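Quick illustration, no need to memorize.
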Amino acid sequence: MEWLVVLAVIVVCVPLAAWLAQDSLLFFPQPVAPTTHLQANAAPLEITVPEGLRLRGWIVRGTARPAPTVLYFGGNAEEVSWTLSDARWPRGWTIVGVNYRGYGASEGRPSEAALKADALAVYDAVSSRDDVDRRRMVVFGRSLGTAIAAHLAAERQIAAAVLVSPYDSMVAVGRLHYPWLPVPLLLRHRFDASVDARRDHMPLLAIVGEDDTVIPPERSRALYDAWGGPKSWVAIAHAGHNDLGNDETFWGAVNRFLASR
């Protein structure tokens, strides 16, 4: 009988521990470091959401006036200033990145509902600026941020989307990494991007790493297949989840896609 007790404890306690710890397994808030790596044309950006919390990030102004604009949504362990500082963004474009709640200097705690609502607030604030061309706003999501970008694209006027290492749902990804857990029953933050993808009819550029083991290409393909608009697929050989941007194929595809918008 002792083994039955041990089995019962495992069956109950392991899923319970996973349910309690899931926020810390999904979100990895990063502090903001000294921002000397940012370009001279980067300016702090603060947006207050309806709850009164302040989200903080940067706007890297493009040379065009008004400028076509990228709204960037990063990964689950990313502080966005590092991506915004990359010199390979097209110079004519304005690039906006705001850290998620609890990330960088942004206030609050992250959750699926909060991050999706915050994305709408960021869009509304940025699209009202005189130096932004509202007709040429592009969402750019990476990893976790691809579901947020897809949701924003379904809810607002967006010209195009770039999704790097996208996924169809966090449930599907969770099943791959935790096959012994009842993921559909436990997961609170489901990030079902495929639902929004079916409502998205603007052009999509999807970029994946062929050797990605965090979000395998088949999960990216499921999201890609659900997308309701014209789309193009770029797979980078020998690239994993975190080194896609090291390949010039990545930035070449991004710049060509933005140039055609």
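The first strand starts at residue 42 and ends at 48.
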